[in-house]
Amino acid sequence: MPHAVTQSCVGDGSCVYACPVNCIQPTPDDPAFELAEMLFVDPASCVDCGACRTACPVDAIKPAHELAPSEQEFLAINAEYHAVRRERPLLAPLPPRLRVRDFGLPLRVAIVGSGPAAMYAADELLTIPRAQVTVYERLDRPYGLVRSGVAPDHRRTRRVTRQLDKIRGHRRLTMRLGVEIGRDLSHDDLLDRHDAVIYAVGALADKPLDIPGAELPGVASATALVGWYNGHPDFADRRFGFAGVRRAVVIGNGNVALDVARILAVDPQTLADTEIAPHALAALAASEIEEIVVVGRRGPEHSAFTLPELVGLASTPGITLDVDQSALPDAAGDHATEPGVARKLELLRELASRPAAGGRTISLRYGLTATRIDGERAAETISFARTHGGDAGAELTLDSGLVLSAIGYRGLPVPGLPYDGERGVVPNDGGRVIDPVTGAAVRSTYVAGWIKRGPSGFIGTNKRCAQETVRTLIDDHNAGLLRREARPPVVPA
Ligand code: NAP
């Protein structure tokens, strides 16, 4: 019986390295890895040894006979990925082991932020015997979006903190909580104390919802709601009330949109044993919301949520999923070869014909772009224009007392570093920060994670991203380029 990867896969690639027969794909050196929705076991070559299962930090891999009925679909999802033979050139492989020049001194690296990209960078650096890592985190709790972004009911995904705890426990790692760079210490302060600085500060802002009425009470970003229900201190004084609201509308249909829709829809009792903030649980218990409408501006084939998350939503008890049947194409068409799209459409079709299951309804709507929000003192209605089809341009208005924009994140400028305002990232080359005007490297300064590549991918995508940054940093160290007053002169190797 082969093993199968299931919904909670964080894509960190631990299983790929553990597998003795290379039956798990995409591998981190495959260009598809960065955008993969999860990793997939090839049932034809799986030898059922369970090595992948032991390596997985979030218990996402199970032998077929242990899959719950709601997880059976993952057998086909895993097999399907391997059924299409993919012959892609692999990325230039990262050298398996860091080759580090020994200058006879410790290599001291500051990492700003403590989310997955930061912790994976620390993990990689700590394989170097002389490396000493200090992680600076502005909050009084570590791990960034793993704590503040992952939905409380995604219990298995949250177990990745155990892997991060292990990294944190390394004797050559110091974690400094409650220290904000730019407020308590400057970039220059860090350079005075360390040989290099890696910024892994994520993408802290939301893409703005730029329509009239977006400033009304009752309109918020999904990020704020997620931060609020996860007890993030930045959102502690936000107030979300769901009494008196019958319909919530979520703009955008990525995984964040599905997360907030699901949390608003499920019976709050099912969240009671999670790490949800008590104030959020109390507010949800008083909720009068009956329907959550998740709106995509394009068609179902472009749904930004991933297949594993849709499978998970489809098997969530106590909610009704209402899919707009008229929006579903008969076939995946041009998108048929994209991994997961045909199956996503198939599942949406199945959901469209499923009888209502009771509970609150999550409605998936397509081909609508929000044009304005109206209300006397707070949001009361939201209007959309149809984006395609025979009635393109036609208006649709829905009553809604709660409008959440879930249209993506955006990195903020880092004090003292160059910034690409268009992409919301710090310009870099393989993690080495580059001044876009001169094209020169900013000395001893690196980036990893969303501030390096933008807000895409999963928790584990940050592992390869961080490894690449560390290799760049080590190349510079080996070339004698890192700032170091006491460094002895570089001698040719
Ligand atoms: P996302 O996946 O990029 O989705 C953004 C959504 O917003 C898309 O539907 C996009 O539509 C829409 N959008 C963007 N600009 C818009 C505009 N101006 N007007 C209307 N709609 C607009 O972003 P996300 O949901 O914030 O997720 C960010 C990353 O975190 C993703 O990689 C996601 O997979 C990951 N994540 C994963 C999980 C999980 O695994 N459970 C949970 C949360 C987040 P278009 O496609 O038309 O641009």
Task: Write structural notes for this entry.
The chain is α/β, with parallel strands linked by helices and 493 residues long. The radius of gyration is 24 Å and the shape is globular. It has helices at residues 14-18, 51-55, 73-83, 116-125, 144-148, 155-158, 160-168, 187-193, 222-229, 255-265, 278-285, 307-314, 341-352, 450-453, 461-478; strands at residues 3-5, 24-25, 40-41, 61-63, 107-112, 131-137, 173-177, 196-199, 205-206, 219-221, 247-251, 291-295, 319-323, 360-365, 368-374, 381-386, 395-399, 402-405, 409-410, 428-429, 432-434, 441-447. It is 25% helix and 19% strand. It has a seven-stranded mixed beta sheet with strand order 7-6-5-8-22-21-20, with helices on both faces. Helix 4 (116-125) crosses helix 15 (461-478), helix 9 packs across helix 10 and helix 12 (307-314) packs parallel to helix 13 (341-352). Helix 4 (116-125) links the parallel strand 5 (107-112) and strand 6 (131-137). It binds NADP nicotinamide-adenine-dinucleotide phosphate.
